[in-house]
Amino acid sequence: MQFAITFALLCCAFAAVLAYPMPDDMTMPPTPPPKYPLNLEGGGGGQRGDGFGFMVKGHEKVWTSENGRHEIGLNGGYGQRLGGPYGNSEPSWRVGTTYTYRFPNF
After folding, report:
1. What is the domain partition of the chain in residue ranges?
2. DSSP track, 35-62
3. Span of the secretion signal (predicted)?
């Protein structure tokens, strides 16, 4: 008799849980990716008596299409060697643009 009462109470509790209305959409909205102001990269080094060379370059996305497939970016850089047996080199400047197309997934 005690088993039958326990079983009946468990069935009632289970039915109450199933009868409770659940919301249609319980997912959270997606978090947008972080926007970094500028992608910078640099480095430098050298051997003893050979001077010191360094470079800095950067890239920035300036336009993205609404569907995210087309993207245009600007990039630029600067490099130079300081000291060494031949003295300082002329500065090296770089400027360019990039275009990216992302093919759709079929």
Report:
1. 30-101
2. --S-EEEEEEE--TTS-EEEEEEEEEEE
3. 1-19
pLDDT at 93 over 80: yes
pLDDT by residue (tens digit) across 22-31?
666 667 788 8
Contact 38, 58 (CB under 8 A): yes
The backbone region for 76, taken as left when phi is positive above 0, alpha when psi lies in -120 to 50, beta otherwise, is: beta
Q: Which amino acid is at 23?
A: P
- The pLDDT tens digits of the residues spanning 51-76 come to 899 999 999 999 999 988 999 999 99
Residues in contact with 81: Cβ distance below 8 Å, sequence separation at least 6, in sequence order:
46, 51, 52, 53, 88, 89
